[in-house]
Design brief:
This protein is an alpha/beta fold. Helices cover about 45% and strands about 25% of the residues. The chain contains nine helices and ten strands. This is Thymidylate synthase/dCMP hydroxymethylase domain-containing protein.
């Protein structure tokens, strides 16, 4: 499978181009992991020049409250209490190395060792292994660049949320490392796909990109974050306590 390379100056344009490329992809027939479902699939490499100032594509099956919840899950680990249910959470897998990465970037901005290794061999043997594999950070011209590798990435239901949450993780790491600006974002998805049940939604998204502006401003997200974040944190604590009581 040849690599589909997309280069854009703005994040939402890159995501839109990736989804359009996926919509035009060939169909792969047959069983895919545990799903009896055909899919469209490409090998995606997407480069975005800068993600410091972004518009957020709303080509996702959720609203702002759920997006805030997902960012908290990735950045703060508010769903880590569920790791025993699923075998892992992304945050639980990489969180022990966040301080290492921040300190590396502080001590040596030219380091090539600022990598969050998300997947491991134990998690790889699970029935539903992690899709996200690693996140690598570099600094150039005083800006924090982010490179992400997914072994598998849902191009309809997950990609927009995945990317936004990982950029918010980059913002946190940059802030803690004393780096004032985000630079480029590179998204490498070895299998960027859409299952047949989602083709209609994918086609609808792609049509809407041509018909209207499907983005919201980052400031709109910040307003939602102010409105919902504390509530979602409290809800996560309640669920954690309830699960602990159930387990004992």
């Amino acid at each position: 499978m040849m690599v589909t390379y997309i280069h854009e100056t703005e994040l939402h344009k890159g995501i839109e181009a990736a989804m359009k490329a996926l919509n035009q992809a060939d169909v792969v027939i047959g069983k895919n992991q545990d799903r009896e479902d055909s899919l469209k699939e490409i090998h995606l490499l997407m480069d975005i020049d800068s993600v410091q100032d972004i518009k957020i594509t709303m080509a996702m099956p959720t609203g702002l409250e759920t997006l805030v919840d997902y960012v908290l899950e990735i950045v703060e680990g508010t769903k880590d209490f569920e790791k025993d249910m699923y075998g892992y959470t992304y945050h639980d897998l990489f969180s022990q190395n966040i301080d290492f990465v921040i300190n590396k970037l502080k001590e040596d901005p030219g380091t090539r060792q600022a990598t969050l290794h998300v997947a491991n061999q134990e998690a790889a043997r699970l029935n539903h292994p992690p899709c996200l594999q690693l996140i690598h950070y570099t600094v150039k011209d005083g800006k924090l660049n982010t490179d992400v590798v997914f072994r598998s990435n849902d191009g309809v239901k997950a990609v927009a949320m995945n990317i936004f949450a990982l950029i918010e993780l980059s913002r946190m790491i940059a802030r803690e490392a004393g780096i004032n600006e985000l630079g480029s974002y590179t998204h490498h998805a070895l299998s960027f796909h859409a299952y047949s049940r989602d083709w209609k939604a994918l086609e609808g998204y792609c049509k809407s990109f041509d018909d209207r502006d499907c983005t919201i401003d980052y400031e709109d997200y910040l307003e939602a974050y102010d409105d919902y974040a504390d509530e979602r944190r409290e809800k996560s604590i309640e669920l954690k306590v309830a699960q602990a009581k159930k387990n004992h």
